[in-house]
Amino acid sequence: MPLMTPENLIRTYFDCWVQRQFPPLTTFFTTDCDYRECYGARYHGLPELQAWIEHQLQTQVVTSWTIERFLPVSTTCYVVTWNFQAQTDVLTNFDGNSVIDFHDGRICQLTEYETKHQTFRPFAN
């Protein structure tokens, strides 16, 4: 498979969660990738990443992972803003940002940050 642009690669990866079908992870990630989730879990290398994905597919259904913005920092680093929704025993819905670094056209490091989807304005008149 030819290498995708970083934006297409990220879109395709997010879509795999919604479709619940993944090509080989080397399509997206380097073999020594580092993936840090917004709640603190961290996976290093393809075996850990594969184990996490298999676990999540058994316990969670991603109903939507919508990309709102791509912010290229450099040719090898992107910040992506998104909204994530999933069903486990409860519905999860939050906004987030990912800082995604690339090496040789694949993700070598991904760090997620969460923000609350529901907002309020405490000082609005």
Description:
The protein is α+β, with helices and mostly antiparallel strands. The chain has one domain: Nuclear Transport Factor 2, Chain: A, CATH 3.10.450.50. Helices cover 22% and strands 48% of the residues. It is built from two helices and six strands. A six-stranded mixed beta sheet has the order 2-1-6-5-4-3, covered by helices on one side. The N and C termini lie far apart (55 Å). The mean pLDDT is 95.
Q: What is the end-to-end distance? A: 55 Å
- Number of DSSP-assigned strands: 6
Q: Report strand %.
A: over 45%
**Spatial sequence of strands, sheet with the most strands:** 2-1-6-5-4-3
How would you state the average pLDDT, rounded? 95
CATH topology grouping:
Nuclear Transport Factor 2, Chain: A
Query: How many separate helices?
Result: 2
* Major sheet: 6 strands, mixed
Order of helices and strands: HEEHEEEE
What would CATH call the architecture? Roll
Give me the Rg, rounded.
15 Å
**Pairing-aware structural class of the strands and helices?**
alpha+beta
What level of helicity do the residues show?
10-25%
Shape annotation: globular
Protein name: SnoaL-like domain-containing protein
Domain SnoaL-like: 10-109
Pfam families: SnoaL_2 (PF12680)
Organism: Lactiplantibacillus fabifermentans DSM 21115
